[in-house]
Amino acid sequence: xxxxxxxxxxxxxxxxxxxxxxxxxxxxxxxxxxxxxxxxxxxxxxxxxxxxxxxxxxxxxxxxxxxxxxxxxxxxxxxxxxxxxxxxxxxxxxxxxxxxxxxxxxxxxxxxxxxxxxxxxxxxxxxxxxxxxxxxxxxxxxxxxxxxxxxx
Amino acid sequence: xxxxxxxxxxxxxxxxxxxxxxxxxxxxxxxxxxxxxxxxxxxxxxxxxxxxxxxxxxxxxxxxxxxxxxxx
Lengths: 152, 72
Description:
The complex is a heterodimer of chains A (152) and B (72).
Chain A: H1 2-39, E1 57-70, H2 73-85, H3 90-109, E2 116-126, E3 137-149
Antiparallel strand pairs in A: 1-3, 2-3
Helix pairs in contact in A: 1-2, 1-3
Chain B: H1 2-8, E1 10-11, H2 13-36, E2 41-53, E3 56-66
Antiparallel strand pairs in B: 2-3
């Protein structure tokens, strides 16, 4: 009886817990991302190395933003099922999408006064922890050059 | 804490901070090396991360050390 509880009820409980909190957290995160992205719409951001300055440059600074984010237990199961049938692993693509956008926003928020961001790059790495079996936890690093123009 | 987050998902703040600090350290080491070379600026800085084993990663920060002289 105890074995049944340990093998069936606990994983199921964690699945439901993961699904409930995970989907709520994701919705909240996306709302926050969309709201903050609107604020940065006017600031040009690109990955070009050489650019035409729109004025006299006052200073340049390195901008870094990073985030470590994990997928919930329910989505991890979905992704595991996907491995059987193949196809797009949407559970992980939403994870990577929000991690990238969050890292990008953090990079920009490091320099709120910047006029332009150039040479932006993104770096992805997997955080392997024994708890997740090395799956579903990623770190995204976004970095670029913040350009500050001289105010006329 | 990280184990719990693996169930419900979301940001692992501890890991974010850990990696940020490591990256800062790598950056400082790069700057120190550039100073030893007599440079006053580093351009084209890049970061690389690699997982060594479970729970450990390597942070690499590299760039080109240059000597910038004021114009004119």
